[in-house]
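Researcher: Going back to the complex we discussed earlier. I've cleaned up the inputs and rechecked each line, so this should be the final set. Can you rerun the prediction on the complete assembly and write out the structure?
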Amino acid sequence: MTAGAPAYRTCPLCEATCGLKITVRDGKVEGIRGDAEDVFSHGFLCPKGPALKALHEDPDRLRTPLVRGASGELRPATWDEAFAVIDRRLGEVRAAGGNDAVAAYLGNPSAHNLDAPLYGRALLKALGTRNVFSASTVDQMPKQVSAGLMFGTMLGVPVPDVDRTDHLLILGANPLASNGSLLTAPNMRGRLRALRARGGKLVVIDPRRSRTATEADEHHFIRPGTDAFLLFAMVHVLCAEGLAAVDAQVAAHLAGLERIEPLAADFEPEAVAEACGIPAGEIRRLARELAGAPRAAVYGRIGTCTQEFGTLASWLVDVLNVLTGNLDRPGGAMFTRAAAGAANTRGQGGQGRGVRLGRWHSRVRGLPEAYGELPVACLAEEIDTPGEGQVRALITIAGNPAISTPNSGRLARALGSLDFMVSVDVYVNETTRHADVVLPAPSPLQRPHYDVALYQLAIRNVANYSPPVLPPDDGILPEWRTLLRLAGCALGQGPDADVDALDDLVAGELARREAASPGSPVEGRDPAELVAALTPRRGPERLLDLMLRCGPYGDGFGVDPDGLTLARLEAAPHGIDLGPLEPRIPDVLRTASGRVELAPEPIVTDVERLRAGLEARGANGTGLVLVGRRQLRSNNSWMHNLEPLVRGKPRCTMHVHPDDAARHELSDGGRARVSSAAGSVEVAVEVTDAVMPGVVSIPHGWGHDVDGVRLGVAASPEHAGTNSNVLADETRVEPLSGNAILSGIPVELSPVRAAEPTPA
Ligand SMILES: Nc1nc2c(c(=O)[nH]1)N[C@H]1C(S)=C(S)[C@@H](COP(=O)(O)OP(=O)(O)OC[C@H]3O[C@@H](n4cnc5c(=O)[nH]c(N)nc54)[C@H](O)[C@@H]3O)O[C@H]1N2
Ligand SMILES: Nc1nc2c(c(=O)[nH]1)N[C@H]1C(S)=C(S)[C@@H](COP(=O)(O)OP(=O)(O)OC[C@H]3O[C@@H](n4cnc5c(=O)[nH]c(N)nc54)[C@H](O)[C@@H]3O)O[C@H]1N2
Ligand code: SF4
Ligand SMILES: [Mo]
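Model: Rerun complete. Updated structure for the full complex:
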């Protein structure tokens, strides 16, 4: 029996980046606990962290490539066989339909590892397709659009300084279940309790009394999709009562302030109260208390994004942060200064190019691109609508769009009709069952880790690198090699391109960009010399070392010998704390004006739609609507095959308020039929007053009992659940961001009576 020293690893499953302490004996994981010495999480973890063991050992987790055989079955194959098929069939599709005939979809876990962010870009570039989709347009794209327009970069999103604030207003987020989003902060429960213990106030706005709401000083139910009305009314109060007090440093770099008051004019609390379901007096008090708190932050997340006015609501969150003097000051909403990967960490007087949206449009519906991708709500129609530019092949990477995107029924049919599909994934699930080739990715314990994306949104500046805990399974390729080999096919280099040579190109390109970047510590240096200095590293570690060394804390390849390198992170298994957030305006800004754009034109224009929406509410804002919810032991669509997480009472239930249950003759523990414009499902009913009247809630990510999946646990009748995105209407997107509207879907309910005995 050999038990090595414990291994330390950052959990890659959500945005909280908890440190794990993993004991391994004889090559097997013995136990996973929170790492008490982790500089950021201090031992905190949730039940999903230890489930990495079950994930690693899951017999259904893929360990070899699969190729669809003549009989139509996916069967094990060698990598060479798999790539030979990919090279030939992708080549055929592109020869017949051009580059745009191949679409790509990147799912959520690709933001949680090193490989996809660093090498996915190389693959997309090689594919040269405009049909790039991701989970971002069923998630945070509205915030990225509002932040991009206001501050100039897509990840320049202010995060609430939770540890120092006196007043936190949360809308549409439930960090006690989700562990935070666009807010990297392990142990949010502890942090929120500390906020209250020091005399601070926590206010939650949510159509459900969420776990976070039960911990708050104050919770207000809000009618789904009406956050922009509420927030505008608060802006109105601040302006009308002379409570706006912009911070002096921010005021010196601010444009558009004078446009805010007139824009808010129509949204007085009395005008929006009924639509929101929050009395006008309460709205006034919320605004006054926010303005009166010494340090306060407004934070909105997915409930404020996946809705009709997502970009407006996301923008108004930061308008309130500006007007109350809380943007960019300790205890307010601040910008992280990440150690690696952020485009805006060096001072350039704040000037930049800003963001350009809508550089191209989707073929069928003409929806605009944002940050190089099209709304995933268009994916099905791009596949099933004939004509030039029709998508005939799809590559999915770490994504399950068949469950996570709107109108799953139509998308499933579309996926089934493709000429060719490749998936890089760890399971055969609702999406990858349609693939002709499935390429496995290693388990998280078999790969190195650094949260390039999430550390850009952390409430402290931190850096933590984890080496692999276990050696790879025999013959499995690291994901970055798979992505580069796919790129090789797309580049016409055949099925076994020289991956190391491609990797050298990627590293060379990154070094070239750094050397050409004004203000970089390596500005003007020879890129080849920089890459040579990273020897013998390659792959993601080489790129990470390069980014760290050129980053704001880096050694600059000799400029600051005490600066950060990957080697220093390797010597610090519990991570390195780089300190609390500090004010960063103007240096963080990358708008063309070099200012915070408080009233960006596309957003101002959209206010007219909001006014119309308010008028329309009066007439028809009273029907039943559907929202989602997240659960601590679940992670989107893909961790339901792990027995330790799904055991216990069924989680995929519809929450219905007792009044609505009575009206629709639904009973707790019974079943209901739920119908919308897009489809209809049957779901288990849970009657609870934790959801407001007029609203029902079904968690997304379920509905695993479909043909062809290989999910022994998840697909079983007791765990399969219901796919709520059958109900989401893919034709409804938020116009500025193209984000799908998943919250506030009009539905109708009816009881499902116990099955009548079927006649023999
Ligand atoms: N109605 C409704 N729909 C929603 C949401 C909602 O709130 N309501 N939320 C939306 C949000 S926020 C998101 S982010 C999306 C998520 O949408 P997706 O990203 O499409 O779905 P996930 O469930 O995260 O699926 C992740 C996939 O990656 C695979 N996987 C896991 N680890 C790895 C790995 O290391 N490498 C590779 N290659 N594959 C891996 C899993 O097997 C799974 O197939 O869903 C969205 N859909
Ligand atoms: N355990 C667990 N953790 C996760 C995930 C998971 O699936 N499970 N997914 C991860 C991902 S991909 C993401 S993006 C994050 C998301 O993290 P969060 O944004 O915290 O997501 P939720 O927990 O779904 O909380 C959203 C809340 O918005 C409310 N809501 C719905 N509609 C509206 C509305 O119109 N207005 C307002 N004010 N509220 C509304 C819902 O009732 C819900 O309580 O979580 C991440 N963490
Ligand atoms: S909260 Fe849970 S899932 Fe998220 S990083 Fe921590 S242990 Fe992992
Ligand atoms: Mo997400």
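Model: Worth noting: The first strand starts at residue 7 and ends at 10.
Researcher: Good, that matches what I expected from the previous run.
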